[in-house]
Amino acid sequence: MFHRKPLEERIAERVAKRPPLKEGKHFEHRPALIVFCVIMVLVALKIVGAFVLMKWGIT
């Protein structure tokens, strides 16, 4: 209708243009690393907070 390629083809072309992932690198781009770190910090804070509450006898 609009003379555009299907979404799947456009995504496949964009992925094919990317350089290969470097050896030993786990995250392709910085935002993924930041989101992962934020989630890990929140999980750690939740666990530490639960232990603190148990120590104080609140729960």
Automatic annotation (TrEMBL):
TM regions (residue ranges): 32-54
Keyword terms: Membrane, Transmembrane, Transmembrane helix
Descriptive protein name: DUF3040 domain-containing protein
Species this chain originates from: Microbispora triticiradicis
Lineage: Bacteria, Bacillati, Actinomycetota, Actinomycetes, Streptosporangiales
